[in-house]
């Protein structure tokens, strides 16, 4: 069978062209053969590793565990997902969303139950991935995606505020200088990622002038040894399962949702495609591996992923793998050096990531005037819930629910019943137009003149479609009301799918 890549470009379908472009852009071998692309991947991995350190430490604190658990989790997650993930260049590591979900376990039951929860969550993710949970991504509307991106940008920015509170003016000056470097350097050269230059320059200035500013070392103790195999000491009983299962399922769902949404975002940013099913079970395997090495688990990291693909230009699995490797080398082998990195440098990088991530077009007055109010409401509800709860999963679920309600409301108002013909004195023909489902068909029963109509009534559904059992029950109610008046109601014009549904259910739905 001939590969699509071998066919003339003009004869490829749009999907085949995108697949071919994805294979070319994300090819590891292609990057290894191209010194320029390889340099981009290596430097991107280094920048991400430097940005991961304080994040992993802070998420460990949120979870109530030793900082080493977050750092080791970031290493094992990144390295594992580099091989198994379905979205090249996406960064997975310890995250705040996961930390918030499973924090109660370590407080109430101890470390062994905590690690067992991480492992079980990974198993659940593998099962969900195999069952095809990734296909649910098709139900995420564009407005929810825009809200997700904007909420993400806001959360990234808000997360930097603690590092800008109660500090000296020198910190603000350093942040401003870092932002200036990130904005201006790409206009001169893109040989080295601007975020990396910012970190190196501000660290050198801090050390050279012995500036007393908050640094990475202030965030928590860095490990001095490599992660080791860890098997949680918990009884394999139903009671243990009852304790950890609710947290494990919650962690699995939150992690998958955040990872799949991030993968979709990277698809759009890079104009390539990813394997969401592979990403789903890959996340599960990564969490299982992380648990057995004593890590706190995690999922895709949106901020670090944006640093990797948007700020640094990485496109392959090399950058993800090196992010994990560099992280381990930095915290174990070069911990003393890493500890001197000023937080101002990392804050500058993350602030610019938040600015670059936010969809500014979505909030322009011209866009808001043109956009239907329902779409804007969906976007704003996603942003609001995410920012208030600090949980992207809650925001996305809320946005999808609001979008579904807005859609149903809109469809319900598009249904009408029209008196179209009177073939003879004893016959009246009604035309029903629109999409008939529970929201629109509930009022349908009240739109006929049961008393005034003649003996024969024809209900023409040629311009309608029957979507559910509620509509079939409503049509039964209409024919029953006419029969009670000694009249006959005949339904015609059903399309094939509607006729099949009506034929299967009509007369079998008890009235309530």
TrEMBL record:
Transmembrane segments: 42-63, 69-85, 113-137, 144-161, 167-185, 192-211, 243-263, 284-303, 323-356, 377-408
UniProt entry keywords in alphabetical sequence: Membrane, Transmembrane, Transmembrane helix
Signal peptide: none
Keyword Transmembrane helix: yes
Lipid bilayer topology: Multi-pass membrane protein
SUPFAM superfamilies: SpoIIaa-like
InterPro entries: Membrane-Transporter-like, SLC26A/SulP_dom, STAS_dom, STAS_dom_sf
Span of domain STAS: 425-512
Protein name per Swiss-Prot or TrEMBL: SulP family inorganic anion transporter
Organism: Georgenia daeguensis
Compartments (UniProt record): Membrane
PANTHER family membership: SULFATE TRANSPORTER YBAR-RELATED
């Amino acid at each position: 069978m001939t590969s699509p890549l071998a066919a003339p470009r003009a004869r490829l379908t749009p999907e085949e062209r995108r697949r071919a472009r994805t294979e070319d852009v994300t090819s590891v071998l292609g990057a290894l053969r191209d010194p320029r692309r390889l340099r981009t991947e290596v430097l991107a991995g280094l920048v991400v590793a430097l940005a991961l350190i304080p994040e992993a430490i802070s998420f460990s604190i949120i979870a109530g565990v030793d900082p080493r658990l977050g750092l080791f989790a970031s290493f094992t997650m990144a390295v594992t997902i580099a091989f198994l993930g379905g979205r090249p260049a996406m960064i997975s590591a310890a995250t705040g969303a996961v930390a918030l979900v499973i924090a109660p376990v370590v407080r109430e039951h101890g470390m062994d139950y905590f690690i067992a929860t991480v492992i079980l969550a990974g198993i659940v993710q593998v099962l969900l991935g195999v069952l095809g949970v990734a296909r649910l991504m098709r139900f995420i509307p564009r407005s929810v995606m825009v809200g997700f991106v904007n909420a993400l940008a806001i959360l990234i920015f808000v997360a930097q505020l603690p590092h800008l509170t109660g500090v000296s003016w020198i910190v603000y000056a350093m942040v401003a200088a870092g932002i200036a470097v990130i904005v201006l350097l790409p206009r001169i050269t893109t040989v080295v990622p601007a975020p990396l230059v910012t970190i190196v320059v501000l660290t050198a200035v801090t050390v050279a002038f012995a500036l007393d500013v908050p640094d990475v070392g202030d965030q928590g103790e860095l490990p001095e040894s490599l992660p080791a195999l860890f098997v949680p000491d918990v009884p394999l009983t139903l009671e243990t399962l009852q304790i950890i299962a609710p947290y494990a399922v919650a962690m699995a769902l939150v992690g998958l949702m955040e990872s799949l949404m991030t993968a979709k975002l990277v698809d759009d940013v890079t104009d390539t495609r990813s394997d969401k099913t592979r990403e789903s079970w890959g996340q599960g395997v990564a969490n299982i591996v992380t648990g057995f090495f004593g890590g706190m688990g995690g999922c895709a990291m949106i901020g670090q992923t944006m640093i990797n693909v948007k700020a640094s230009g990485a496109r392959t699995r090399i950058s993800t793998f090196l992010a994990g490797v560099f992280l381990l080398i930095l915290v174990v082998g070069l911990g003393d050096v890493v500890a001197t990195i000023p937080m101002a440098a990392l804050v500058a990088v993350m602030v610019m990531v938040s600015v670059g991530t936010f969809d500014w077009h979505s909030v322009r007055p011209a866009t808001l005037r043109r956009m239907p109010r329902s779409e804007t409401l969906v976007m704003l509800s996603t942003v609001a819930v995410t920012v208030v709860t600090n949980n992207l999963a809650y925001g996305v679920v809320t946005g999808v629910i609001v979008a579904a309600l807005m859609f149903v409301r809109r469809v319900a108002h598009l249904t009408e019943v029209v008196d179209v013909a009177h073939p003879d004195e004893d016959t009246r023909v009604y035309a029903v137009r629109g999409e008939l489902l529970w929201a629109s068909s509930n009022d349908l029963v009240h739109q006929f003149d049961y008393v005034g109509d003649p003996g024969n009534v024809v209900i023409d559904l040629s311009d309608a479609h029957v979507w559910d059992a509620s509509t079939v029950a409503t049509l039964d109610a209409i024919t029953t009301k006419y029969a009670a008046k000694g009249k006959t109601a005949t339904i015609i014009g059903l399309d094939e799918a509607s006729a099949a549904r009506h034929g299967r259910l009509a007369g079998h739905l008890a009235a309530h």
